[in-house]
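REVIEWER CHECKLIST
Item 1: Sequence provided? yes
Item 2: Single chain? yes
Item 3: Sequence as submitted:
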Amino acid sequence: MIAAGKIARWILIAAAILIAAIALALFGLELLLHARYEGVLVSSDPACAGDRTDPYDPELRFSAGAFAGECDDASSVRALIFLGVNPDGSLEVANFFHLGHFNRARIPGHVRAVLYQIVPFESHAPGIVAAHTQLRFLFAPGDPIALSPQSTRKRASDADDPEQGEARDLIVSSTITAPAGEHYRALTGLRRAYGIASRALSSVTRAKEEILVDGSVVRQLQLKLGADERDRLLRVVLERASSLGETRDYRLLEESCATEVFDALDQVRPRPPGVPPMRGGVLHARDEFIGPSIAALRARDLIDDQSELAPMNAELRCDAPAGRCFTTGPEPAR
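Item 4: Structure as written out by the authors:
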């Protein structure tokens, strides 16, 4: 009996040591993933210009991290630039991406609805559920976003495309910046590699990337915001994205697509007492954003059981031979 008691005590001691070691390892990993890096990730370099006829081409080269020395690929991903408020109350931005071109855009100042979108995708990491999150702004019917091209480069087919001059909605999507040919991988996102930028683009353009190319289903939840909150959120998102630009590192737990959305939401509607900022954590790394972001929206009273709408896929027809998506129905907001 004495020997059995000693064995049991040693087992308990060993288990306690193992638990402490695991906790210490997790704490160290958490500190590493939340650490801030010294120095800028990218720097200006005219040699990296993709289109010299476009005054808003960012012309950036990675100066640190895994891609040091390589040019940032700005052919489709750029930070939006907020240019100001027009006399009629509309908002002017540059680098609005629509149907393959960057444009200056005049965005209506009044928002009809704001949708929180969740886009699952392949993480390339066993057991990890990956998802991208972004905001979609809808405007009154008959009040589109007016577009004018930034570059003098035009395809011959563009002159016959009636959709080139306007877009019916706005998606603001914080995503990685990287050299040409590099794609997002969750494990790469745990170290210093990618930059981050908040893009402005139309739903038909984003659908080509997410639905036509990736085969994703784009979930949509309509946020419970008042008219003034919706308008202020649009202004906050645009000004925040423009001021942050492309100077920051992507950090999966601290600066990512989801944290950008929630930082803007919390600026418009302060978090209720006891509700923490939206940040990642190693203990729920298997599902970093889908479950946690839905829970965070509920904690802020921004969604309820009736908030989920039909996926964005239902509004569009994506044509693989044509290489683009077309709107086929009305926007789903209530």
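Item 5: Key structural point noted by reviewer: Residues 23-35 have pLDDT under 50 and may be disordered.
Item 6: Recommendation: ____
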